[in-house]
Amino acid sequence: MSTPIWKKSATLEQIAGRAGNTAISLLGIEITEIGPDFLRATMPVDHRHVQPWRVLHGGISVALSETLGSMACYLAVPEGFHCVGIEINANHIAAVPEGQGVTAECRPFHLGRSTQVWQTEIRRADGRLACVSRITCAVLPD
Predict the structure, then answer these.
(1) CATH code, domain carrying 111
(2) How many domains does the chain have?
(3) Tens digit of each residue's pLDDT (9 = 90 or more) over 53-90
(4) Is residue 1 part of a domain?
(5) Among the options 13, 30, 33, 66, which is catalytic?
């Protein structure tokens, strides 16, 4: 079993409370699990999330990835520090039709004192990988 990496504690309810009236709530992103070394979330794919061809917009996948990576980074640094995203990339592998939902799981790639790298896999309802994205965050003192 993995050793927990979190330096700050947060409950799903606390995370949901902070997400109110933000892009997170606007997009319907819901953090569903805080594991020992990962965050998991769900998001519907409806009219808010699609491009004109009625499939998940790649930019929305990136927003989901940035949400999880930034949140995970924040939880993985000690009190007195915060994180800011400095680079993100995404590979879009399979389309997600409107009406389906996605599940995303974010895990650390690198946990340094000044930078962290987090990878998110976004999967369709059938389990097929739709997108893989990596975010680099700078760790800064408050």
Answers:
(1) 3.10.129.10
(2) 1
(3) 999 999 999 999 999 999 999 999 999 999 999 999 99
(4) no
(5) 66
